[in-house]
Design a protein that fits this description.
Blueprint lengths: L1 E5 L5 H10 L4 E5 L4 H4 L14 E4 L2 E3 L2 H12 L13 H28 L7 H25 L11 H15 L8 H11 L2 H7 L2
Parallel strand pairs: 1-2
Antiparallel strand pairs: 1-3, 3-4
Helix pairs in contact: 1-3, 1-6, 1-8, 4-5, 4-6, 5-7
The structure holds glutathione (GSH).
The site of glutathione has 12 residues, from helix 3.
């Protein structure tokens, strides 16, 4: 049985979403966030104290996008991926990593220095610097969407890359840091949020 450690609003949402898209059986272990402070027992499971955390037999994984690739390859026949033989493969991979490394990770730094660290350690200038970086990257996303007018990042095929990028957008919207969203980004996010699997995952 696949076990996923999850907390609402965290990157584990990406994994729940995919589990729902693939209609797999899984067990969800809900963890209070941040685990370091609120669920210290979780550190015996994942010493990093981060979410998501996946257990599947002997497999242990802590990177959300790697978990997406693992689940897709092992249980999803890679049907939500672009094959290496397809002309769109490189773009697909790029967006898959972009969602975490160029969006969610930078956005996390903003949130950390705006809200999560104790007040006397907050660094508004650092937060502003990284927010500007995120907003620049959103321009690239917006241009990509508007030049193509397709449903998803890789044409009309929904892929893991959409899950990766959408999570970062949802995080921004949740913290009202979505001033950089163009109409194309808003429409794209609305399309993704209307997927039944997304909606099921959102209430887990
Ligand atoms: N790159 C990792 C990041 C994992 C991560 O930092 N998760 C956050 C929640 S979204 C977390 O658990 N933070 C708790 C902490 O750093 O103490 C991924 O994509 O899964």
């Amino acid at each position: 049985m696949i076990t996923l450690y999850h907390s609402v609003g965290t990157r584990s949402m990406r994994c729940v979403w995919l589990l729902e898209e693939l209609q797999l059986d899984y067990k969800l272990e809900s963890v209070d966030f941040p685990p370091r402070l609120k669920t210290p027992n979780f550190l015996t499971v994942n010493p990093l104290g981060t979410l998501p955390y996946l257990i599947d037999g002997d497999v242990r994984m802590s990177e959300s996008c790697a978990i997406l690739e693992y689940l897709s390859a092992k249980y999803g026949e890679r049907k939500l991926e672009i094959s290496a033989q397809d002309a769109g493969y490189a773009d697909y991979l790029n967006w898959l990593y972009f969602g975490e490394c160029s969006l969610a990770m930078l956005q996390s730094i903003v949130l950390r220095y705006t809200y999560f660290v104790p007040k006397d350690q907050r660094l508004p200038e650092v937060a502003q610097y990284y927010q500007a970086m995120v907003d620049e990257r959103l321009v690239l996303l917006s241009r990509w969407l508007s030049e193509r007018s397709t449903e998803y990042l890789c044409g009309d095929q929904f892929t893991l890359a959409d899950i990766s990028v959408a999570y970062a957008l949802i995080l921004m919207r949740h913290f009202k840091l979505d001033q950089g969203f163009s109409d194309d980004i808003q429409d794209y996010l609305a399309r993704l949020s209307s997927r039944p699997a997304f909606q099921r995952a959102s209430v887990k």
